[in-house]
Known about the structure:
By secondary structure, the protein is of the alpha+beta class. The protein has helices at residues 22-32, 42-47, 61-67, and strands at residues 11-13, 18-19, 84-93, 102-115, 118-129, 134-144. Strands 1, 2, 3, 4, 5 and 6 form a 6-stranded antiparallel β-sheet that branches.
Amino acid sequence: MPINRDFIGREYAAQDTYEVSRELIRRFADAIGDASPVYRDVEAAKALGYPDVIAPPTFLTVLGFRLGGGPLGDPSLGLNYALVVHGEQRFVHHRPVRAGDVLTISSSVVDIRDAGRNELMTTKMTITTVEGEAVADAYSTIVSRGTAAGQEGAGA
């Protein structure tokens, strides 16, 4: 069954916030194997002009998991996760995430389109501080295999 295209343009605001700490940044840097001191050492970060340690650019992926909800959590979307693979991820950073930030997100469906037998759904996660300062926009495209209009029953 095709993804519900009425979702294009819908916005979902997170009901919670995410407080970034030095420890969370260090753990993420360890997990991705990045030994840069700017992710661990306050003095190294300050030497580069930052007020505290900063997070690796891909750190923001955790917000979607932690603050959840959004369009992917809405059953009316009609998305069958058994048919989904990750297609693309990109970030537009306005400034680095740093220890002490308290972040929130707003998610929306930017586009849903057919690509052969598949559908591509692009979402945007707008990340801001609770004070409203823009931090980044994260775009994610998922592939729903074999669900393009007219493809039901054609096999995945």
